[in-house]
Each structure stands twice: as C-alpha cells, then as structure tokens.
Amino acid sequence: MAVSLEKIDMLMERANISYKEAKDALEMHDGDMVEALIYLEASNKTAYAKPSSRPNRPPHPHPYAGNRGNHRQNNDFFEDMKKFFAKMHKTSFIVGNKEKRVLDIPLTIAAILILFTMPVSIFLLIVPYLFGYKISILDNEGKNFNFEKTFQFGEDKKETPKSNEDRME
Closest Cα partner for 136 from 165, 113, 159, 161? Predict the structure, then answer.
C-alpha cells in the first residue's frame, strides 16, 4: 500500500517524530496508522514514551506548525523573572534610625508604591532625611544591599569593602 503525505504528516504530529521516522514506520506496516503508532511506542520513539528513554530530545518541528522555538525562550524568561522578583521580595526597604524602624517592607512593595505614586513618593523619599532618619535596602541576610557589586557600575571596582558601621540594627 502506498504511503501518502497526509498519513506521514498525521503520524508526525501524533507521535512527535521526524518525517523519516514516520515514513519508515508507515512503510514497515503497509500504511496502517494504528500499527505504526504501536510500533513507535514499543520502540520508545514517540513523545508518549517513557521520559527516561529519550532524555532532552527536542521535538521535530512540523512543517505547518509555525515557530515553536520561542516557547522555551519565553519559559526561560519567565523563570528568570520569577527568580528576580523572589530575590527582590526577600530584600527589605527600611526607613528608620539606630533606635527604631519607621517602615520595613519588602522591596517589591516599595517599588510598586513608588512607581504608582511617583510625584508624592519622590517628596516622601526626601522627608526622612530632614528628620534624621535613613533609608536602607537590606538583603535577606540583613546586610546593606551593594548595588555596585550587583550591577558593576565601573571597570575598576577593586575598592576595599566598607565596614558595617552604617548597618541598621
């Protein structure tokens, strides 16, 4: 029995295999789709096979399926954003002095408040300094967040680290 292009395309789509694998399986079983699928599953060549049998094999693109390569890039981007916001949420935005803290909130909340109340927040970021308070950003270990180390603002950043004298307790 002759193997048609439609059957090959259908088998490629269902089993997530290459054109050659689909053609070979259909020719081996005289164009019978069910037998070809059973054969491919038994030989661990389909996407439905055991995950450990074919590790990290990228799916073969179907000629009519469009561009699926961006899916993994989007996934990586969202994973990076999740990590960024999780780290940002563990970082604290603090207004206070050595005796007491007036405000202690996660940096994500502070950034959202500053973003949505921009004119007022700029004024409110200056007011604490007038009354002798200090604004600090502390990481999850309680140390001052080092922007220079994180973002590398200069080429020659080989300065000695400051002591924790300005650390808010």
Answer: 165
* Distance of alpha carbon 149 from alpha carbon 158, whole angstroms: 10
pLDDT in tens, 36-81: 888 888 888 776 544 444 444 455 555 555 555 555 667 788 888 8
Beta-bridge partners for 95: 103, 135
The long-range contacts involving 127-131, CB below 8 angstroms and separated by at least 24 positions, are 128/95, 128/102
Sign, CA dihedral 79-84-88-91, equals positive
In tens, the pLDDT along 75-115 reads 788 888 888 888 888 888 888 888 888 888 998 899 899 88
Q: What's the rounded Cα separation, in Å, for the pair 119 and 113?
A: 11
CA gap 166, 164 in Å, rounded? 5
**What pTM value is reported for the model?**
0.43
Amino acid, single-letter form, for residue 44: N
